[in-house]
Amino acid sequence: MQAHERHPLFMVRPRRTRPRLPLRGHVAAALVALALSKPGWAAPDLPHQTSTLPRLPQLAQDVGSASPQVRRQALRGLRELAGPETLPLLAGLLGDAEIDIREGAIAGVIGVYVPPRANRSVNAAAAFEAAPFHGQLWSVPPELSTALVKALGDKEPTVRRDAAYAVGIVLTPPVTDAVAFELLASLSDREPSVRVAAARALGRLRVQDAGAPLIGRINDEALDVRLASMRAVGDLREEQAVVALTDQFTFYVRGAAGRSAISALAAIGHPSMIPLFEAQARSGYPAHRRAAFEGLARAGGASAAAPRIEAAMASEKDARVLTAMAFALAAAGRDGVNRVLDALADRDRSDDALSYLVELGRPIVAAVAARFSDPDPFVRGQIATALGFIGGPEADAALKAATSESDPIVRQRIETAQLRLTRTPAAPARVHTQP
């Protein structure tokens, strides 16, 4: 064993080997029945579904073949189908002896939950970024979650990396102790890209025990790991990270680490940081100003700063900063919600605006629902998504009132939002708007 493999910061887990079990006919039949079952698996009226089902028994048989070439053909077939009924079969390929099949199986799983754009291949990191608002609400077969967690210990770093992203895409918090343990182990992987993916997944899945290890990684030797760890503690709203983040911002104020540090501080929104946010609201760096206004909204400092924010909006040129300022004003009970809603039409900052609306929560549902009259179907789709995440009876009523929507893509977004409402309680507002 090499010296770096013995170091506690670079833990290498032994490869797990598992025999590949053949999938018998009764298993294939069960997969067909599973694909036909409605809750969480088969969305209504999917055009590919009728042609999919007859292929599943053959694909199930091919997945269990002793021939790598046959298994590769089965993988191609599963990825072409790209439906939730393929997930149990893709899970069976995650432990394949061939690395390209394992990599392709993870990409196939990710593509089911976050369908790639036309003519673009699945990129695990990009799919992870898109997943919160644009992922599919498919249920997770037990064998899939088990296989993905085992893949975190694969001998190949590309598999370990993409498995970490996939775990963050597929699973939802709270996760089991076993999942948390394996992700925390991945945070000590010798490959930096795996540590990056593990940090992001730990933050996304709200693994509370990850706070201290992630704070430790803020001083990782790899810059990308440091940046990912800072973002993750922000996702966790880990108040114990405030000191370490403040040190990073002070030392690297003009660099990427400085930007990540103040963004993470803004995500945490600790009241002790209000003086820093007020100072950085006048920064010459747009990223610092944007984070400062977000931080004021979350830390409770927006009300006192509202007159200054309103005055500064007249001279602000950066669109993202303007949206953050509007968010802060909305949190202070001022006229800011409509400017955040206006930002939904801008493809470059639409998801930022969507995130702000979800944080503002139920007090703004009426203003959000009113935008179902927008002529742009893209905006209407974003409105549906926002209501699905905000939740509550008001959002439910607004979505029901919009079911006569003419655009098929927007209708699908409305149906997804309604499904989300049946599965999750209304999200508490991160910021509380002032009356």
As a whole number of angstroms, the C-alpha radius of gyration is 23 Å
Profile the largest sheet: none
The amount of helix comes to 55-70%
User: Average pLDDT, to the nearest integer?
Assistant: 88
> How many β-strand stretches?
0
What is the N-to-C order of secondary-structure elements (H for helix, E for strand)? HHHHHHHHHHHHHHHHHHHHHHHHHH
**Tally of DSSP helical segments:** 26
Shape: globular
Low-confidence stretches: 1-12, 14-50
Derived from helix and strand composition plus strand pairing, the structural class reads mainly alpha
Distance between the termini: 63 Å
In what range is the share of β-strand residues?
under 5%
Any key phrases for this structure?
mainly alpha, globular
Give your account of this protein's structure.
It is a single chain. This protein has 435 residues and is an all-alpha fold. Helices cover 63% and strands 0% of the residues. The chain is built from 26 helices and no strands. It has helices at residues 3-6, 25-36, 49-52, 56-63, 68-81, 87-93, 99-113, 124-134, 142-151, 157-170, 177-186, 192-204, 211-217, 223-236, 242-251, 256-268, 274-280, 286-299, 302-312, 319-331, 337-342, 350-360, 365-369, 377-390, 393-401, 408-423. Helix 5 packs parallel to helix 7. The longest helix has 16 residues, at 408-423.
